[in-house]
Every structure is written in C-alpha cells, then in structure tokens.
Specification:
Hypothetical Protein Yqey, Chain: A, domain1, 2 domains, 7 helices, globular
C-alpha cells in the first residue's frame, strides 16, 4: 500500500481513537505532502514521500534541541511525541557498524587521501545512505577515516 494511503487510513483511525497527538501530526504530514505535490505539480513518488517525511522528522529533531536549550521541556516533549509518530514511516536507519563500512568503501572507491578530499567521499557516500543515516554523522566518520 502506498505510504500516502497508509497515512490517510491511520489518520482516520487516530481520529476515531481520539488520539490528539497522532491526529495533529498526521494532519501536518498530509499537509506537507500536499504542499510538495503542489510545488512539483505532480503526484509524489514513494522516494519523494520519504524525503518529505524525513524533512519533517529532521525539523522535529532540530526543534527538540532548541526547546531543550531554552529549558522548555513541555514543548520538547510535544515535539518528541510527534517525532515518534513520524518515525513509523521512516526507513530503517543504518547501524554505526554499517555506516562505518560504507564510509570505508566510499573512501577506497573515491581514492581520497586527505581531509581535503571529504567532498569526493561524500559525493560517493550520500546516494548510498540517503534517508538511512544522518549526513553530519557520516561526514564526521569520513573525516576520522581520512585523518
């Protein structure tokens, strides 16, 4: 079943169950998906839907960090609850070991020798890890591998 259809069905179930957090999060997600469809002027493919979901999850993670810095635990908790709802629709992430193996493989295949070659390695690595690992974490591992 396409992800968008699944989200719509789960929204109805959340509304019937009177689950306020899940309902509002799924409504925001559906709105984000529709806005992206309007922007692209076509229906979204599954990878594009995954990109929108990842962007929403990333936005929640950044907001949680900001709320924690501002000592607003109540708002951070709300964002964490929304993030948990979104994580159901995200692809399974890579473990640290899998990511390190992909970094080593990308370093070898790109022929990088020094920390100045990070861009070369990242251009090889990012298509492999897109949506399954954090780019900042990958860049950190690449720098460690090259130093």
């Amino acid at each position: 079943m396409p992800t968008q259809d699944q989200i719509s069905k789960e929204l109805l179930a959340a509304m019937k169950a009177k689950d306020a957090v899940r309902t509002s999060t799924l409504r925001m997600l559906i709105a984000a998906l529709r806005n992206k469809e309007i922007e692209k002027k076509k229906t979204l493919s599954e990878p594009e839907v995954a990109d929108v979901i990842q962007a929403e999850a990333k936005r929640r993670k950044e907001t949680i960090t900001e709320y924690q810095k501002a000592s607003r635990a109540d708002l951070a908790a709300k964002e964490e609850a929304e993030l948990k709802v979104l994580q159901v629709y995200l692809p399974k992430g890579l473990s640290d070991q899998e990511l390190k193996a992909l970094v080593q493989e990308a370093v070898k295949s790109s022929g990088a020798k020094s920390p100045q070659d990070v861009g070369k390695v990242m251009s090889v690595l990012m298509p492999q890890i897109k949506g399954r690992a954090d780019g900042k974490q990958a860049q950190k591992l690449v720098l460690e591998a090259l130093s």
